[in-house]
Q: What sequence folds into this?
């Protein structure tokens, strides 16, 4: 494995992802991590990330002694490079001005290490203020740019540094450079495939839970589905999944989950029909946050009731992903990860008496999808667009009633049918309908109508933090509009939401 030491760069995740794309497992650790925890990963190489600090800042993150003492190859990137030079006794100085963006790297003719296979001049992406003035010991410069006399260095075996960012797309040869480090220099074989992940994880789950019973809240979303499949592969009938139909699901969703997981894949699935409970609790509720809270609380009650019937279960499986883990990671909770992990299943309370099993804890979303395919999950589960826990309730402006849920479900089904028909479903982050509480006047035939306006929302995003509205073709919008107004009585107007996030949010509530 390759361990990526995080000095706070916005690109740290990206480094780990790139290494994994080379089929080598990599994990991110904080700069303050101890060798005791790092050695569990069994690293063959260390990458020091960039970061916003200057090595002379008070409290600037430092290179831990284990990085120097471990004896394995170290690649410093940007701040990581400067901190390494500083630690090894060289000199780093504040640059006259920040260098940001494109630069051309001239490669020394004799580098057969990091820059092996590359020659002449290659475009690279810079982002730094300080620069290396003098290299310590037997380190030598193997690449420079117009502004940076030392943009790449090595001692030929143990120490490597790059002032630019090989992990970003703007450095087109970045992957060959990282591959040189990981494969040639560190000797990693590149056998971290979805298939091997499944084999290893199945073994680990079997060791972890033994002959105990495990329960899993299955929503039909990608994460809980893949987690459930891994558990099923590992422990078969010791796993019981609970699927709660809260009445806030999309058209056909509850049937699809039962069909896929119970009938086709053979999982032990308890279907809990809680439609009435949720709809009754939501009567008269119009405030978005109260809706969320009400739904969250009711979910806990329903889940506790269902889990209570399985009183011999002492493990709870969750589909927690790596980005959530990195967010909450500190050196202290690394060693005791289980205790501090947040339950992500609709906010289950901490005092439920379960130990957690989280087989996806070290995976990014796209890796979860590959594992899902490897496990034989159908593509319509693996490539499903995200759907919020509170479901259609936060897409109905105003009170949630059975009638309005049915209206929205029909509108939403038409949107998804047409988006699929246009071959756009997988390329869109989320696409859905919103039922507004505005009624407007229309005319159908010779009659005046007075019905609800339905809004269509389609956005693209990488991580839901920011989003842009999708430029849907007019023909697709026209088809959606015509079908909704004709097929859904009670809705007589369709509008398209052209707000990005920020300033809008993806959901309307
Ligand atoms: P917003 O509307 O905040 O949504 O831009 C960002 C992403 O989060 C989803 N979302 C939720 N998911 N419970 C969830 O599980 C919620 O209460 C919730 N609210 C928003 C939303 O669908 C989008 O993907």
A:
């Amino acid at each position: 494995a390759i361990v990526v030491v995080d000095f706070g760069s916005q690109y740290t995740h990206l480094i780990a992802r790139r290494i994994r794309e080379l089929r080598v497992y990599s994990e991110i650790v904080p700069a303050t991590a101890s060798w005791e925890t790092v050695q569990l990963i069994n690293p063959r190489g260390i990458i020091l990330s960039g970061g916003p600090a200057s090595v002379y800042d008070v409290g600037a993150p430092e290179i831990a002694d284990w990085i120097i003492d471990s004896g394995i190859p170290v690649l410093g990137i940007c701040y990581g490079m400067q901190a390494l030079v500083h630690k090894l006794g060289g000199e780093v100085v504040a640059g006259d001005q920040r260098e940001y963006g494109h630069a051309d790297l001239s490669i020394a003719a004799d580098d057969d290490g990091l820059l092996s296979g590359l020659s002449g001049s290659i475009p690279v992406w810079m982002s730094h203020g300080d620069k290396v003035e003098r290299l310590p010991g037997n380190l030598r410069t193997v690449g420079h740019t117009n502004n940076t006399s030392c943009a790449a260095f090595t001692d030929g075996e143990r120490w490597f540094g790059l002032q630019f960012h090989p992990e970003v797309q703007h450095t087109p040869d970045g992957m060959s450079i990282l591959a040189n480090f990981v494969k040639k220099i560190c000797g990693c074989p590149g056998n971290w495939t979805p298939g091997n992940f499944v084999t290893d994880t199945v073994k680990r789950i079997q060791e972890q839970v033994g002959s105990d019973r495990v329960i899993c809240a299955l929503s039909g979303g990608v994460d809980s589905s893949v987690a459930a499949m891994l558990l099923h592969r590992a422990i078969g009938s010791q796993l019981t999944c609970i699927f709660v139909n809260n009445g806030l699901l999309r058209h056909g969703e509850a049937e699809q989950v039962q069909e896929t997981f119970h009938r086709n894949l053979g999982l032990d699935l308890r279907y809990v029909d809680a439609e009435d409970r949720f709809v009754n609790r939501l009567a008269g509720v119009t405030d978005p946050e109260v809706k969320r809270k009400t739904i969250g609380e009711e979910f806990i009650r329903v889940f506790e009731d269902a889990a209570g019937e399985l009183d011999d279960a002492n493990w709870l499986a969750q589909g927690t992903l790596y980005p959530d883990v990195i967010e909450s990671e500190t050196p202290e909770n690394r060693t005791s990860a289980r205790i501090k992990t947040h339950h992500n299943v609709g906010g289950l309370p901490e005092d439920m008496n379960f130990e957690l099993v989280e087989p996806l804890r070290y995976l990014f979303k796209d890796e979860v999808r590959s594992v899902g395919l490897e496990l034989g999950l159908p593509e319509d589960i693996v490539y499903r667009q995200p759907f919020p826990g509170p479901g259609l309730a936060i897409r109905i402006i105003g009170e949630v009633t059975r009638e309005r849920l049915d209206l929205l479900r029909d509108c939403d089904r038409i949107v998804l049918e047409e988006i699929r028909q246009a071959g756009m479903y997988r390329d869109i982050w989320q696409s859905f309908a919103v039922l507004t509480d505005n009624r407007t006047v229309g005319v159908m035939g010779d009659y005046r109508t007075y019905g609800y306006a339905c809004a269509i929302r389609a956005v693209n995003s990488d991580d839901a933090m920011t989003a842009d509205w999708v430029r849907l073709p007019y023909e697709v919008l026209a088809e959606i509009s015509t079908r909704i107004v004709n097929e859904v009585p009670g809705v007589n107007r369709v509008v398209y939401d052209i707000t990005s996030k920020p300033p809008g949010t993806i959901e309307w509530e």
The chain has three domains: 2-185, 194-382, 396-496. The radius of gyration is 27 Å. Residues 292, 386, 388-390, 430, 464, 501, 505-507 surround xanthosine-5'-monophosphate (CB under 6 Å).
